[in-house]
Amino acid sequence: MPQSATPVQTPVVSMDAITKTFPGVTALDQVKLDLYPGQVTALVGENGAGKSTTVKVLTGIYQPNGGTIRIDGTPIAFGNPNAASDAGITAIHQETVLFDELCVAENIFIGHAPRNKLGLIDTREMHRAAQVLLDEIGAPFSTHAQLRDLGIANKHLVAIARALSVDARVVIMDEPTAALSHKEIEELYTLVETLKAQGKAILFISHKFDEIFRIADRYTVFRDGAFVGDGLIADIDENALVKMMVGRAVDQIFPTRTPNLGEDVLQVVGYDHPTEFADINFTLKRGEILGFYGLVGAGRSEFMQSLFGITRPSKGACKINGKIRIIRSPADAVANGIVYVPEDRGKQGAVIGLPIFQNITLPSLKRTSRSGFLQLAEEFKLAREYAQRLDLRAASLDQDVGNLSGGNQQKVVIAKWLATQPQVIILDEPTKGIDIGSKAAVHEFMTELASQGLSVIMVSSEIPEVIGMSDRVIVMRDGRIAAELSGDDLRPETLVRHAADITTAPKRQEA
Amino acid sequence: MSDTAAQTRHIPDRLNSRAFRILRSWETLLLGVAIAIFVINTFTSPYFLNAWNLSDATFNFTEKAMIAFAMALLIISGEIDLSVASIIALASTAMGLAVQYGAGTPELVLIGLGVGLLCGAFNAVFVTILGLPSIVVTIGTMSLFRGISYIILGDNAFRGYPDSFAWFGQGYLYWVFTVEMLFFVVIAIFYGVLLHKTNFGRAVYAIGNNPTAALFSGIRVQRVKFILFLLTGLMSGVAAICLTSRLGSTRPSIATGMELEVVTMVVLGGINILGGSGSIPGVVIAAFVMGLVTFGLGLLNVPGIVMSIFIGLLLIGVIALPRLWSMFTARRAS
């Protein structure tokens, strides 16, 4: 139920009916968002709800296809990031964009450093002004410190000082606490209070419910790129917010199937990594689709890449068909029948620059060649077989994969792995950023693979996909397995609760 | 498979015919340049079209080309080795030193190849195991390897190579055909087959286009690169044997600056300096182009320093030509 709060004052920034489309995808569909001076507005939604796109529209990186942005009631269009910055909007990103090789003062004043009479940078004045800003936010480091030497929390402080230096009226914080310790988070909260007191409007993006209820005054919920509702935090509780986030019309239909589970194919025992994950144990059966759900940064991809031999676990063993196997490299993993379809298709998936058929046969060259010598006819045969199985749309098999759409590139990567006849296929966010049609095809195909006896591990941050496709779901949080769910336990609310660790009733902040 | 193929969408293997691809290739353009230079040389000097003179001229490029073939694979994979000329110096010095202790031709060959391999392995360890950038590592070893030669030799030169050792750089197989030409042909065929016809060559291209995706495709990226550094070192060893044999002496300044001529030959041959594309036939033609230009200018009594100007202009010109052409046609179309 869309609901709207009556504004008590006029918003600094208001987005009205903003639409942003990409080829084949509507990222934002007529969303609205209001930011008020001296208040923290939390933008809430699942991964893919359109939060990041919103930030990019607000900061002028993307130009919307429709709708109006108003500043103090006056419509304005940001042609580029500078225009947004001039309008007083500044963002502190998930991975803060700063310059490692420069000092703190240079980072704060890059692009608008004070000049002396000769037009050169007035270093002394710059450091003095920087010190004033650092004092204001209580930053415990020197303006001469190299950014490289600062921790992530202090880098955030530099970014905030930078925001203050341009006299920003709107500060966007995109998951600012994701990489911070408890103490650092507390310090950040204090700083947010300071900014509020100065009358700045703050857009706070977070997946953590405790901090939303602790720090925010207002909320706005997006779902699948559309506005769901907004209001005052004081008027809502956690359950209602979760419902607004995940509750959706059943517009996605997943293939139905009766899983035909066989013996244990893969057994992971006590996988540990010094920083990314700890104590991972599970088994995977033949013909099973096992979903991995969690927030961004929960360690799912890192664990999968370790299973695939990209990084080495510090501890733990992996049994394939009951036998202990040591996987030191992707080549070992492939030899043992484990293959991985990465999330980052452009960088890790397809070899852009090589033609389609060479991409498909790359891990199978031993089979298509004769004593190390290429057999092009065999390669084309194998490539065609799998290209057709996946219904690849391409002009020819000799075409550069770089010229294919995202969905078709994904098909090439999947074809490449199926051609190796694996036992376990790991799909990392298999449908992220691809159009609805290709999505359905990928889902259909996963079902078909499982029914043919392949075991599938699917890492996904899309709740409907996880629930619709998986026989069983493992929820990860902070690098550990938080829950293992199947059957009736597979409900959106349960997944979100385990992923975000909402176990106790939230503490309300007096507004 | 044929049943389903009839029902599903048919994707052709290739859109363009083989003849069309060859006609449009860099190698064809380069061959045109080579022929043009050949014709110009024929008209500018009466001494050019002489079998013995042409045979002599091949020494201009055979030794460099041996290294260039291995270097081509290395550059396609996204790495580079600038220490090759210094490896020649060190290998040659080692052979000269061995002569002082009475080594015969077979021992000298083994030492030359062995030092080349060791130097290649030294580079490879720093690049593939420690993960350092190859351009930095090999600039370092460029000074290091030649520096060792200077320490051993100082202002002196090693002479007194056995008579049979002269076969490599001064020998003739039949009429005007030299031993080095045989090496050139055999090595060209070896690297052509290795790059274009084997799984290893495919891996080299994959790594050059996207090392991360290659790793994620189960290719042992570091192992392939290690082998490429070994091969480049080995070819420097072969070149050291040929050059030392031809000169009959070793000075520490032997082959100074040759690394840049090798890289020039590779780039002129159409190998992308950023990695990922290029072919061995291209490098073969580039070797002839550079040989013909140097020889033609030599017949006109053009001094060496001016010759390097021509080689530089040739490189920039040949690389800029297709780019200028596409800009020109794009403007015409609009």
From TrEMBL, chain A:
Q: Which domain of life is it from?
A: Bacteria
User: Main subcellular localization, coarse class?
Assistant: membrane
Database matches in PROSITE patterns: ABC_TRANSPORTER_1 (PS00211), ABC_TRANSPORTER_2 (PS50893)
Q: Which residues form the ABC transporter domain?
A: 13-249, 256-503
A GO CC annotation recorded here is: plasma membrane
Task: List the keywords (alphabetical).
Answer: ATP-binding, Cell membrane, Hydrolase, Membrane, Nucleotide-binding, Repeat, Sugar transport, Translocase, Transport
Q: Does the keyword Zinc apply?
A: no
- Can the keyword Secreted be found in this entry's annotation? no
Its placement in the membrane is given as:
Peripheral membrane protein
- Tell me which EC number(s) this protein carries: 3.6.3.17
As for subcellular location, the record says:
Cell membrane
Q: State one molecular function term (GO).
A: ATP binding
Name of this chain's protein: Ribose import ATP-binding protein RbsA
Natural source organism: Pacificibacter marinus
Give the classification, highest ranks. Bacteria, Pseudomonadati, Pseudomonadota, Alphaproteobacteria, Rhodobacterales
Automatic annotation (TrEMBL), chain B:
Q: Which cell locations does it reside in? A: Cell membrane
* InterPro entries membership: ABC_transp_permease
Q: Which UniProt keywords apply?
A: Cell inner membrane, Cell membrane, Membrane, Transmembrane, Transmembrane helix, Transport
Protein known as? Autoinducer 2 import system permease protein LsrD
Q: Identify its membrane topology class.
A: Multi-pass membrane protein
Which Pfam families does the record match to this protein?
BPD_transp_2 (PF02653)
Bilayer-crossing regions:
28-49, 61-77, 109-130, 135-153, 173-194, 226-248, 305-325
Q: How does it assemble?
A: The complex is composed of two ATP-binding proteins (LsrA), two transmembrane proteins (LsrC and LsrD) and a solute-binding protein (LsrB).
Keyword Cell cycle assigned to the entry: answer is: no
Q: What role is this protein assigned?
A: Part of the ABC transporter complex LsrABCD involved in autoinducer 2 (AI-2) import. Probably responsible for the translocation of the substrate across the membrane.
The source's domain of life comes to Bacteria
Gene Ontology annotations for the cellular component aspect, listed alphabetically: plasma membrane
Q: Which organism is it from?
A: Pacificibacter marinus
Give the main location. Answer: membrane
In its UniProt record, a GO molecular function of this protein is:
transmembrane transporter activity
